[in-house]
Amino acid sequence: MRSFAILFLLTFFSCSEDKKSDCNYITDYYQSIYKADYEFQIKNYEKAFEFYQMAFKSCEPITTPTYNEIGKFAETTAILKKYDLTLEYAKKLILSGRELTIYQNNPNFNEFMTSKYGQLLEQDYDKLREQFMENVDFNLRHELIAMKAADQKYRVNRNIYENNRDKQDSIDKVHEKRLIELFESIGYPNNETYGPFSLDHNHIDIGLFLLHTDDSIRMNYFVPKVKEFVKNGKATPRTLGTMIDQFYLYNGEPQIYGTYTKQDGGYENMIDDLKKVDSNRISIGLPPLDLKDKKLGL
């Protein structure tokens, strides 16, 4: 009987891991995260917890820019006094580069930090931080920071860009080649690879370089590649959407995902069928327009 129980547990965890390894973040993760984020914003923490759990049972938790789902889930569990989960997800955040002060300075974590779980987090912090630092590819980080500076060298304003278009195009070609090398060797570089903004206050976004790739290679190589990276949780849906929408807009056609807005409100040239826009957005992992607007309006 005992051996059966052990076998059952091993089988259960094996199936659970297999399920996550088969995860498609576009279909299995993002829509639950967007719903959870909205519930978190309106302080409906029980409902937020349910949606976060739904996503995390399907896929390994990641941190999506502006949604910060691991951090918000940790905060949700602290509010709901599920401190074992708070500890688990707080550790995940520290391993991704967040510092202990985010818990020490947030009143929602006060009771957690004074509990035995918070004390364990403080005890383990230095070791977790060291582990994080060991995993950061600082050489790649410095290279990408230099690439960003070169990417913007002649894009200071329209006149400078127009007078130096050939020089900037040459820089973009070098970056295009380097991105292909990176995609083929290590996959999609992200914060897991080169570390977060908090390391040195340099914002790195591979999506910036992708917007300056040649039309043909963008649509025939980079878009299919990035879609696969979105499916496996390495690239963001927004990166994919802006690559494609910018291509259409720059070629005089309406955008199909609604990732570009006007400074005075509304969207840049976009297809008229809003249901189709929502369908397009969901198909690459973006939230429907209504849910996006709710987040911005909160």
- List segments where confidence is low: pLDDT < 50 over at least 5 consecutive residues: 1-15
| Average of per-residue pLDDT values | 93
- As a percent range, the share of helical residues equals 55-70%
Largest beta-sheet details: none
Number of domains: 2
Rg, rounded, reads: 21 Å
Number of helices, where a helix is a run of at least 4 consecutive DSSP H or I residues: 18
Total count of strands: 0
Task: Provide the succession of SSEs.
Answer: HHHHHHHHHHHHHHHHHH
Concise structural overview:
With 298 residues, this protein is mainly α. The protein contains 18 helices and no strands.
Descriptors:
disordered N terminus; mainly alpha; single chain; globular; 298 residues; 18 helices; 2 domains; 68% helix
How would you describe this protein?
The protein has 298 residues and is mainly alpha-helical. The chain has two domains: 2-135, no CATH class; 138-297, no CATH class. The chain is built from 18 helices and no strands. The longest helix is centred in the middle third of the chain and has 21 residues, at 165-185. Residues 1-15 have low confidence and may be disordered.
Fold topology:
Blueprint (H helix, E strand, L loop, with lengths): L1 H20 L3 H4 L1 H12 L3 H14 L10 H11 L3 H13 L5 H4 L5 H5 L1 H20 L2 H14 L6 H6 L1 H21 L5 H4 L11 H5 L4 H17 L5 H14 L23 H10 L5 H9 L1
